[in-house]
Amino acid sequence: MPLLSVEDLHTYYGEAHILQGVSLRLDEGEVVTLIGRNGAGKTTTLRSIMGIARPSRGRVTLRGDDLTRRPPHEISRRGIAWVPEERRILPNLTVLDNLRLGLRGAGHPDGATAFDEVFDYFPRLRERAQQRGRFLSGGEQQMLAIARGLVARPSVMLVDEPTEGLAPLVVRDLTEILARINARGTALLLVEQTLEVALALSHRLYVMDQGRIQFEGTPEQLRKDPTIQQRFLEV
After folding, report:
1. Which one of 110, 131, 141, 162 is separated from 168 by 20 to 30 angstroms, measured CA to CA?
2. How would you write the pLDDT of the chain (235 residues) with one tens digit per residue?
């Protein structure tokens, strides 16, 4: 049984048919990445899994438990964390207070142990624990968004465009941190525009275009398929 299973999802925004039968799986310990051009349906897939966008048809399960009609807060409490593209940290709260919200939103009590674990991944956040979110750099805000999702020890993290707009050195550091998070047992479903980051992190990839899965395979299989890269990934 997959850890996370998505079966034949159809999602609309108004009259626009965004997801047109998307199916994918995420196994225990995996990093799986959705890649594709802007507007392909990648973010809508994550939003549909999280219950933020409501599918009109299809099914989402976590270890066989049907999540399809559950609200986002229940899905979070069952072990799925969502790190949105816009980060959505609260700018007037400190780093610690943003992390406390991550615990409470997932139904976990406050606890210093959870904070120590995320500070192990993000020592820079420990240094800035009392600083308000609006004073953090873009890279630090992205770290805080990931840490806020991670603090509740989810089984699955849905991470949307983690490296977008970041300097190359920060992208390298963040890629290494995501690999460490996965190595310690958290499965990751990523949306990523940078092909090399996706290839470096992923066990498997799905290429999306116009609301459909056009390719599923390993990084090595994608590297050896220039036709898929030219048709669905090149601008």
Report:
1. 131
2. 899 999 999 999 999 999 999 999 999 999 999 999 999 999 999 999 999 999 999 999 999 999 998 999 999 999 999 999 888 899 999 999 999 988 876 656 556 678 888 999 999 999 999 999 999 999 999 999 999 999 989 999 999 999 988 999 999 999 999 999 999 999 999 999 889 999 999 999 999 999 999 999 999 999 999 899 888 887 5
11 within domain boundaries? yes
Q: Is 198 inside a domain boundary?
A: yes
List all residues 6 or more positions away from 33 whose beta carbon is below 8 Å from its beta carbon: 189, 190, 191, 192, 198, 201, 202, 204, 205, 206
- Structural domain harbouring 46: 1-79+188-235
The total number of structural domains in the chain stands at 1
Could you tell me the two tokens for 186?
């958290």
Q: d(Cα 21, Cα 233) in Å, to the nearest integer?
A: 20
Would you say residue 108 lies in a domain? no
The interaxial angle of helices 112-121 and 168-183, nearest 10 deg, is 130
CATH number reported for the structural domain that contains residue 206 in this entry? 3.40.50.300
Q: Is residue 233 part of a domain?
A: yes
CA–CA distance, 156 with 150 (Å, rounded to integer): 9
pTM as predicted:
0.93
| Two structure tokens written together for 52 | 């933020």
